[in-house]
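For homework, think about our next protein:
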Amino acid sequence: MILMRSETVEERPAYVRPVAFVADPVVVAASLRPLLENHAAACERERRIVPAVMEALRASGLFHITAPERAGGPGHRLTTHIETVAELAKGCVGTAWSYGLLSGITGTAFALPPAMTERLFQTGEELFCSASAPSGKAVAVPGGYRVSGRWGYGSGCLHADWALNGVMIETDAGVEPALAFLDLRDPACSIEDNWHVAGMAGSGSNMIVARDLFVPDNLILWSSRTPPAEAILAMEGLEPRDRWPMEPLFPLGVLAPMLGAATALLEGVAQAMPRRQIAGWTYAGQSGSEALVGMTGRAAMEIDSAWLHVRRAAGMLDEAAQCRGLTGFDKARIQADCGYAMELLRAAGNRLMDVAGPGAFALSNPLQRIWRDLSVGTRHNALNGQLSIELYGRAITGLPSNIALLPDITPAPTWARPK
């Protein structure tokens, strides 16, 4: 979490909530599943969250579940957010992917100081997306910066009012990375429709373009000015989300919809097994085959195991980070948890489609769409399983980090240190 204050969290009046306060987001998400399932094919075809689903999501209050209490939100745990995204993904993976990023970044915006939120929020219903790669350039001008750039993979950008995007800024100390809030409603911003993919089409992860957009000084978040974890823990008036370290949030966020996708695939395959015939074989149905039943059980264990890794990783932010700063080694293990979970989920998806058989690949069968979404989503570079596991091995053996986001992966555990 990027904090912009030095000692305390500033007080401000809470926003009047435009939607009902969501006490149990997972239950609300489950109630929306039938609607999302009915519109999942349209979501893929139109490559965005369709209007009926977007309207229901807004009315449900789910976009604000990680907003802090001081901003009028419920301030739910990170684990609850992950569970909510996963529940929505059982109905539509593309919608859940966009929802997860939009709600997560919007919660971050709500947690910022008043000087920023007063500019960012006019109604309290604004939504935020993010493309954090520093592919934009910011040039200093009186009162702020002129920003130009192109940012790919802007998931949810078609539904966002603002984008929190990475830029490089020339300063007296050299070129520094930062994040800039871009007003997507400004004529200087546009969305380039270039998201044509085999899976995850519904996420609408198009290109965000800015041409000489003015960004005020106080809508820049400087990476180098984030207080250390120890300083954050000493601040007064903090809420749990203020103590979440920034680095693990993205991998955990993009993993969440994959958990729901794999679960939906398991449910669809298992429910059809008693009645699904196996052409050319003597079984009355697939559930009569010990081999196929065993494959289904193994896939279920892979999904369960992925959840165990995710809960351990998210628990580090919800629990450990509330009382101490996470070490570089902690963060490396979280990254490995996420990468390994992705491998487990993709393996489970492939195994389940082996059980389902060739009929599951008919375009009229929703299982193939879920499988394609799972196959593409689990290949996100942020969750590369092999590289993430290598990172963990490097942290254990004292080798340098292999990921730019985590340059420090120390200290190695005492049991791994050379004697």
